[in-house]
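Ticket #4471: structure output looks truncated?

Reporter: J.K.
Steps to reproduce: submitted the chain below (218 residues) through the standard prediction queue, then opened the result file.
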Amino acid sequence: MAKNLLVSNPLTPQISTPNPNKPKSRILRHLPVTCSTAIPKSTSPKQRLLTLISDEDRGVKTLKNAAKRSEITAAIDDISELGKGTVTTGDSLSATWRLLWTTEKEQLFIIEKAGIFGTRAGDVLQVIDVGKGVLNNVITFPPDGVFFVRSTIEVASAQRVNFRFTSAVLRGKGWEVPLPPFGQGWFETLYLDDDIRVVKDIREDYLVVERAPYDWKE
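Returned output as attached by the reporter:
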């Protein structure tokens, strides 16, 4: 998911002079409610972020809503403050991580358009093993399809990991097509805990993932 998105705010209420003959409840019912007003101020940065991305179809909806994207990235800034000064490139980085939300257009295109090819995108994963220095970016197409990109990784600092793509494979039931590697870069894990991980990469794309309830193997 590490790899090489202004419009007027559609959430701004357009309020006209109320008709005194109409009940107040009917007036209020027509005023839009923004996500920011729907989430209590006492909500933790982590829960606020998870709430904001919960209905965004892994980021597909966010592509068409600049205001929502700004609100989510502001929440990422808030949770990143909690991660400052922490080490996020140790053993706890090793896991199978499942995509919750991203701004990466390439991944979102595949998720959104998979139906054109008679399939659908399943879990989108990032599989990391710090000890072995490897990373697999994976998009599954149930029941049998998968596209994955192999990379080598090297810890560069307390929060940054450098990567280099080594190969890619498109695999179906009983067949496999190898593809050439295509680049290198870095990503920073801004926040990491037992449940989620928040990432920013070399292209300033964002990624929010959760620890998957299973380990993906090639």
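Triage note (M.O.): checked the attachment and the full token line is present. The chain has one domain: 45-211.
Status: closed, working as intended.
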